[in-house]
Amino acid sequence: MKMTGTHCRERAAERKGIFMSKLKGAVSIILCIVLIVGIAACGGGTTNSPSAPVQPSSAGSPSSPSEPSAAVSGNKSIIIAEQPENGEYDPAGATAYVYFGLQSYCLEGLVDYDPTGTTIPAAALSWETNEDGTEWTFNLNPDGKWSDGSPVTSADFLNTITRALDPETGSWYVDSLFMIKGAEEAFFGEGSIDDIGVELTDDYTIKFYLDSPYANFLDYVILPVYRPSSVKYATKEDEAWDLDPAKNLGNGPFHLSERVPGQSITFIPNEYYSKKENVHYDTVIYKFMNDDQSKTSAYSTGEIDVFPGAPYYVQDQYAGKPDLDKAEVLVTNYILFNINQAPFDDVRVRQAFALAVDRQGICDILGNSKIPSTTFVASGYKSKVDGRRWADVQDTLLEENVEAAKALLAEAGYPDGAGLPPITYTYPSMSYEADVAQALQAQWKTNLGVDVSLNAMEYEVYVNSRRNGELQLSRHQWTGDYNDPATWLDMYRLGNSQNDVEWSNDEYNALMAQSAGELDPQKREDILKAAERILVTDDTVICPLFITESIYLINPAISGYKPATMGGFDFKTGDIDK
């Protein structure tokens, strides 16, 4: 976060190499999506499963389950469809799809969000900071207990941090620790892990010393690497501790009680949780399922109670039924231009392609769960200044203008597309992505006279290729990790490990650094808006397309669930009628 120039580019490449070598076997889960519990994570996938939508057979015909699946076991249980099992269940490690469900139900961080996005106490009852935001002290709840009855202490939080700073762990969120003094140096072997700026004043007090002011540090401590892991079990020596329910303790409302590899995981209430009166389910089960058709059929027969990220066609099937619900998620689907490959090394070409896109036309093809967007920050994000949607706070950053697009292309030396090198748009072979690709292909042909080839890749190969900077023009998607514009905009700072095309703009980098230390909310928001205009409008490194509403099928017997701050629904304090 503080490096510049060539040194930073070298570090970024080194960091990316470390991550990819550690995570290559699980790369299909690296870029994460909004999860069924409404917790957001970094994004590259979609909430729907691979392959284009297939209309369900008669087995998936719409009919509400005649009774909740909980009735089979005679207790209050809900079964939630989830993507196939991937990744780790360690907050310090390679977090992915299912981890975020475990995090929501089983791990309580220092702070949390209320439904409005306001930071509220969680494992920490209170906190304070110095005037410039470089020192933060959190006072833990002394009544906090792990699910085995042992106390949750400051050492458990430090345990996750120190293990994440070990490159062998392969932590995907380690960048978010680099604001702590000495943390980046420790990660790269240039300093000692014993010298990082984390002080355990006592068992229930933890203090962070940051290398510079960070106005939104409270947002960062929402992330996995700031969550606790039991010093008793979560050790480097026992690499599989997180897969063992007896060792993977919870300090939240639930804990992991059973794992059937590749099939399901089960959570049960943490009897030592300080707010256990808010817990109503006896069990919560994640059932791993491969495709939308299977999930649709399983819902109609009562095999599952919740189907998040359902395909758009269920809206017609369940129209007028209480099973159907939708929730906006803080995710932006966009085009990534490889600024290092011709012809997209010319900003005029990038702008021409961006201005020739009809976002509403694409959304019309995909049904009514997609909303056009011209901002990189998810347009549904609520401003910390006045609560308005980002779409109403920020200007329109890219607006379809075919004549301007043609003029820019001609100015770049490619009138009506003549002389352009072969252009290929690459996308993961998942769900609606083929429809998006075909719509873009047609629009660029009609509006610019340019022939664009389409290349569908198996997801793992696609992620590897994009991360390695090999793709010329590609689809990307990012879901907010925390409730702040920086969760999107930090991606394209110089040196950030998510900056796949290694774009660098001095003004952008300076604005992002300035925003981190600006404690006045309005001034900070204005700085971030200016940075976003550089990324999207001036340099057009990316071309936003749309945001998504996640479609849910939910057993009508389930009540009390609520929208989650980062999108989707939060079920953990809900209830179900037996």
Radius of gyration: 23 Å
Beta percentage is 15-25%
Level-2 CATH architecture of the largest domain: 3-Layer(aba) Sandwich
CATH homologous group name of the largest domain: Periplasmic binding protein-like II
User: What is the overall pLDDT average?
Assistant: 86
Shape: globular
Number of domains: 2
Question: How many distinct helices?
Answer: 17
Number of strands: 21
Q: Distance between the terminal alpha carbons, to the nearest Å?
A: 52 Å
Q: What is the helix fraction of residues, given as a range?
A: 25-40%
Which helices and strands appear, and what pairs or packs with what?
Layout: H1 5-23, H2 70-73, E1 77-82, H3 97-106, E2 111-113, E3 119-121, E4 124-129, E5 135-140, H4 154-164, H5 183-187, E6 198-202, E7 205-209, H6 217-220, E8 254-260, E9 264-269, E10 283-288, H7 292-300, E11 306-307, H8 314-317, E12 324-337, H9 347-355, H10 359-365, E13 370-372, H11 390-393, H12 402-411, E14 423-428, H13 433-448, E15 452-457, H14 459-467, E16 473-479, H15 486-489, H16 506-517, H17 521-538, E17 542-554, E18 558-559, E19 562-563, E20 569-570, E21 575-576
Parallel strand pairs: 1-10, 14-15, 14-16
Antiparallel strand pairs: 2-3, 4-5, 5-7, 6-7, 8-9, 9-10, 11-17, 12-16, 12-17, 13-17, 18-21, 19-20
Helix pairs in contact: 9-12, 16-17
